[in-house]
Amino acid sequence: MTILSNPLPIMSFDTVTTVSRSSSPIILAVESSCDETAAAISKNGELISNIVATQAVHENYGGVVPELASRAHQQNIVPVVHQALQEANITKTMLSAVAYTQGPGLLGALLVGSSFIKSLAWGLQIPLISVNHMQAHILAHFINQPVPSFPFLCLTVSGGHTQLVVVRDYLEMEIIGETKDDAVGEAFDKIAKLLGLPYPGGPHLDRLAQQGDPHRFSFPTTSVPGLDFSFSGIKTAVLYFLREQVRQNEQFVEQNLADLCASVQHTLVSMLLEKVTQAAEQTSTREIAIAGGVSANSGLRSQLQTIAGEKQWQVFVPKLAYCTDNAAMIAMTAHYQYLAGQFDSLGASPNPRLRFGSSN
Length: 360
Description:
Blueprint: E1 26-31, E2 36-43, E3 46-54, H1 66-88, E4 97-103, H2 107-124, E5 128-132, H3 133-139, E6 152-157, E7 162-169, E8 172-178, H4 184-194, H5 201-209, H6 232-248, H7 252-255, H8 257-283, E9 287-291, H9 298-311, E10 314-316, H10 328-339
Parallel strand pairs: 1-4, 4-5, 6-9, 9-10
Antiparallel strand pairs: 1-2, 2-3, 6-7, 7-8
Helix pairs in contact: 1-2, 3-10, 4-5, 4-6, 4-8, 5-8, 8-9
């Protein structure tokens, strides 16, 4: 019997390979943290393709079903990656490295993306880069001009997170405030569901809010010390308010839907921007950025610009395509990690609760 030596000697399961780095790296990145399967290609930090496959299956359940999300990622990841390579006119052998979202996110969904990319890294014998999803949302600001200057303050808002982050460099960030319970995106979606709006509720609530009076109804807010947030209380307040009003008038929600949406949105956005203002004063920062899915909210964008005019802030908001989950932001983050030599081993595991500075 002849025993063949390992034909793939460069990379091992537990160690990171030492490689000669390209001065113009070409990176394939995938994003699979929740219900978007995405792939993107960057060349020397410039985005050259960005593909996203949405998962409509969750609309029937009023929220993301983790098992269904994982199955959809398995179905979508090969076609999405193939299309990203094709549109970029790049072959797999031209890649300098591959990257994936390590966390935070749904474990099953993260496993699909990480397993696929690890297999590709092993087969091509190229470096592997694991990316923090929330850090990537912030670095989406560097996909297109204009870009913020360091240091700047970023409000990162999504369905799972609400954070105030001081960004000192591409890979040096500090969370100075975050939600103590629910994320603001979850509050938007849950209240939208109470109002009878379809999934995903946040964008529907936003559209209706643009037609309503934001001062028609008043809702109590939760005061949290320092720069932290709390959004569980307003959900409960809206629930009790609607129950009482509907008890007196069954058509109350339908008759006042736009004003309800506008009032809820105004309250949630005001809670966010109150803390942003405090953080800007405490850090002496005049460059303010917003990132994450809720940064697409028209009320947040509008009120932020109003305050920016009063405070003489310079505001940075990503294009809508880079607010929600996408692989372009993963590729951008991976580019800077590549330049810094921050490669990972094939033994790195997805981490659903990954935070800035967490070890792999």
